[in-house]
Amino acid sequence: MSIEKTISPFIQKQFPSFYNTEGPNFIAFVQAYYEWMESNQQTLYYARSLPDLADVDRTLDSFLEHFRTEYLNAFPTNAVIDKRLMVKHALELYRSKGTPRAYQLLFRLLFNEDIEINALGNYLFTASEASWVVPKYIEVSDSPFLPLLVKQQIYNTSKTATAIVESVARKNINNKIVNLLYITSPDGRFKYGEKILCETISNLNPSNAPTVLGSLTAIAIENGGLGFSVGDILSVQGTGYGAKARVAATINENGRVTFNLLNGGSGFNSNANITVATTINLTLTNSSPNTVFSFGDTITDTNTHANGMVTFANSSFVEIINFSPSLNFTAGDYVNNQVGTAYGTISGVFGGGGSGAGFNVGGITNQVAMQYNTDNINSFTNTLLDNPVGSSGYAFTLNISTTANTFTAGNTVTASANTILLEGIYLSSNNISNGEILSNTSLGISGLYVYKSDLGQLSILGNQANLVTANSNISNGTILVSSVSSSKFQVTNYFPSITTVSAVGNVYFSNSTVIRVSGNGISNMGSFLSNTIVTDTQTGHTAQISNVNRNTNWGFLNQTVSGNLDAPINQVLQTLTEVVGTITYLSNQNPGNGYTTVPYIDINQTEISQLRISDGNGGMMGHNAIVDASVLNANGIITAVDVYDSGIGFDPDGILELTKEGSTIAATGTAVIALDGFAEGYWNNNKSFISDTMKIQDSYYYQKYSYEILAQRMKNTYEKLVKDLIHPAGLIMFGKYRYQDNQTLNETMPEQLQLTYLPNNYIVQV
Q1: Cβ within 8 Å of residue 121, ≥6 positions away
Q2: Does residue 598 come out as left (phi exceeding 0), alpha (psi in the -120 to 50 range) or beta?
Q3: Phi, psi at 345, each rounded to 5°
């Protein structure tokens, strides 16, 4: 129901009609009286405004102060919050008393600030509160039924294992898709090769069910490395990702190799070819007086026929690799090289044992990008034009436009032309193609025929008069215009000599439109050019050549351009780019086992070393790194490990590398894939960790009946207000000062602090 603010407009209608004629002054008097009563601060004004006065948003200031005194007397009068808003939320504040909401609302009303409330009882240490959780999952083959298994109980083919599927995931591991069923409440183990079945999915059966692919269950150690201790945590690298193992047992033995990088060289990347070869060392007597064995020589025992490659030698010592394993060098036997220039008698044989040692290039520094190609051009340097590739025996196809007579097969034909060579730049966007005619009328230059256009180089022919005129008038800066494309070519480098290009060959086939020419043993055919005259030397017949097709190619293995004999060399040769640098460290070092001599070590970045680029220190880039090795008694060789995180995506019998953090030495093994997988376990909470955030009860600060306010102000500015308004009985309140960056300061600091504000920081000064 609406209430009119004024009633004076209705006064006249309240009198009988005769008052309008006999007592109008009285009506006016009464109406004026009511208007006065309705004015501000008078009785009717308040009476007609009662609905507004009941609304805290519209009530009078004097009424608002009454409400504050009545319901919020403990609130300070200088609170930053609007008083109307404060009165409006008073009931909400009192109803939430004892809850974090009450404290947050109070600080917002009083100070327009946000706070945090800590229930200190949540930080109390509780014995045996935490539980150890081990996530479990099953790696399975792809199947359309996988999404339907979520929240369902599954079992295996043999019905020896059950579990509840919590979720399904699909992951890409090393470019291989792996499907995971995350399970809870497992009973039994799901084995490799079994089917996953579910009673609630009616059309799921062994013929279409997903198959258990298995996870990393165990690792069969192949080479145990060295320097490990029982309990060491190992990262497992292989076809999968994320697996971890723990060293379960170690032994000590000799014959292990350690590597030491002495010089990282230059021109290497992580794909360098690394050779670590077992050696046999021979001591010699009665050696050749003037010649010793050289690197790469094949040394042979003339009695047993044992042989190998020499990597180092002097007059009394030879180091051998790649030796025949079933034949033995024997003391007293005579040895020589493949040509008999080096020889000697064996006085002692050492080594020959050991295997498995190796390493990888770890890091590269001082990186540069090198461009190179691997095309071998040596075999094509004497390519003859009469040796066509993929043709029927002819080197040139001459397309002719005019002919006086026919040409006879077997007859010799010749052609010659005077040419000049120009280099320059284009002044228009169009390039000049083969067959275009160039001229410059202002200089009297005309009739210059382009028979070969190669980017900024133009090969030109014409009659003698035109070439002589051009030769006389062309200079650097001359502009030539094409009559075909109107392209403008400015000469930047002019070669004034007129060169004669000659050609000779035998007619292989001829008709009215084409002449095919063969070399037929001619050592230098030369080159036939378009827009020239070909002549039969026996008959004198001639023809105008319109264009020429060459059938001879280089034949490079990396050929990408047809007819590449006429193509720019950068289009024919395959250019590769390699980022190389200096080796900084060796990774995944495997010490092997059973070594009796130091192995031979070689690091070769083949594609760089074959370029034969000097490093400035007597070596060649890509083959100048130096690694030293030692054979020693080794401790901490792994014999067994326990898998405590199966990872994802490992293949059965896959090769694994096991390393510990901070070490470059690796052990190796093979993957055993047999059962469902499990991840590294974790505690579900920290309530039993006294060394973490949990505290032992002190019956004062850390106890169930204490709480803490974290605010951007000192405790003494709000303590009384909190206790008067919302503090529950039976609890104790603490306060911490919170910086802008959420750091806190204990309330035990002196109260006589001065706070100096800097951008994004508070500096506390005592």
Answers
A1: 702, 703, 704, 705, 706
A2: beta
A3: -110, 130
Q: What does each C-alpha distance from 313 to 61, 67, 296, 297, 712 come to in angstroms?
A: 109, 108, 11, 10, 80
Burial class, 398, CB count within 10 angstroms (exposed 0-12 / middle 13-18 / buried 19+): buried
Q: What are the domain boundaries of the chain?
A: 8-48, 89-122+695-765, 132-213, 222-254+636-668, 279-352, 382-557
Question: Token pair for residue 67?
Answer: 């409400």
Which pair of tokens denotes residue 64? 């608002």
End-to-end CA distance of the chain: 64
Cβ atoms of 526 and 402 closer than 8 Å: no
Which two tokens mark 270?
């992580």
* Number of CB atoms found within 10 A of residue 240's CB: 25
Distances (CA, A) of 503 to 32, 522, 549: 130, 11, 14
Q: Which structure tokens are listed for 602?
A: 């070689």
DSSP H/E element including 399: strand 396-403
Cα(144)–Cα(168) distance, rounded to whole angstroms?
A: 12
How far apart (Å, rounded) are the C-alpha atoms in residues 452 and 459?
5
538 CB contacts (<8 Å, ≥6 apart)?
A: 408, 411, 412
Full DSSP string of 699-760 = SSSSSTTEEEEEESS-GGGTHHHHHHHTPPTT-EEEEEEE-TTS-EEETTS-S--EEEEETT
For residue 660, the tally of other CB atoms under 10 A from its CB is: 18
Alpha carbon separation from 687 to 127, 694, 703, 706 (Å, rounded):
8, 6, 14, 18
In whole angstroms, give the CA distance from residue 623 to residue 601.
12
The chain-wide mean pLDDT, for the chain, equals 85
Are residues 670 and 656 in contact, defined by beta-carbon separation less than 8 angstroms?
Answer: yes
Interval 128-155 mean pLDDT:
90
> Which stretches does DSSP call E strand in 520-608?
533-536, 542-550, 575-593, 600-604
Q: In 3D, which of 324, 339, 344, 337 has the Cα closest to residue 282?
A: 344
Secondary structure of residue 213 in the 3-state scheme = coil
3-state SS class at 437: strand
Give the span between the Cα atoms of 355 and 265, in whole angstroms.
Answer: 26
What is the tens place of the pLDDT at every residue in 163-220? 999 999 999 998 889 999 999 999 999 999 999 999 999 899 999 999 999 999 999 9
Q: Is a pLDDT exceeding 90 seen at residue 693?
A: no
Residue pair 408/537 in contact by the 8 Å Cβ criterion: no
Burial string for 303-319 (b: 16+ CB within 10 Å, else e) reads eeebbbbbbebeeebbb
CA of 537: how far to CAs of 218, 549, 727, in Å?
Answer: 86, 22, 123
Q: Token pair for residue 308?
A: 């190998």
Rounded Cα distance between 526 and 528, Å, is 7
Cα–Cα distances in angstroms (integers) from residue 697 to residues 118, 488, 577, 692, 704, in the given order:
15, 94, 67, 14, 9
Nearest to 155 by CA among 147, 164, 144: 164
CA distance 418 to 422: 14
Entry pTM:
0.48
